[in-house]
Specification:
Helices cover about 55% and strands about 5% of the residues. By secondary structure, the chain is mainly alpha-helical. The longest helix has 24 residues, at about 30-55.
């Protein structure tokens, strides 16, 4: 089994949940999701390259596509993409942030 095949179920679940959120008219804010994805992908690139370059993590060359970002295989980015799509979509579907009152801080009465 290749790493790409291992990634597919995670990406598929993220896609199905995102589609369900869109169809339920509870899609996450796509601009915020895109900005989050860019930040997360840059961080993933940096830290995955450190992990692979130092030998902490290794990949069987026969099981990767051969497409690399630095020394990290492209398959490593699938989990970041799945997370950045899945979590906000799931949050939106479950009603997160909708109708929730903002927390208030109790203030003591002013003393004369």
């Amino acid at each position: 089994m290749t790493y790409l095949l291992l990634d597919l179920p995670f990406l598929a679940v993220a896609g199905v949940v995102a589609l369900a959120a869109v169809l339920a008219r509870r899609a996450p804010r796509w601009r915020a999701l895109g900005l989050s994805a860019m930040v997360l992908l840059v961080l993933t690139a940096v830290f995955d390259n450190v992990l692979v370059a130092t030998g902490i993590v290794g990949y069987d060359p026969d099981r990767i596509s051969g497409v690399l970002v630095g020394v990290a295989p492209i398959e490593d980015f699938a989990y970041a993409i799945a997370a950045v799509v899945l979590l906000p979509s799931l949050w939106s579907l479950l009603g997160g942030g909708l109708g929730t009152p903002s927390p208030t801080v109790a203030r003591p009465p002013d003393a004369p």
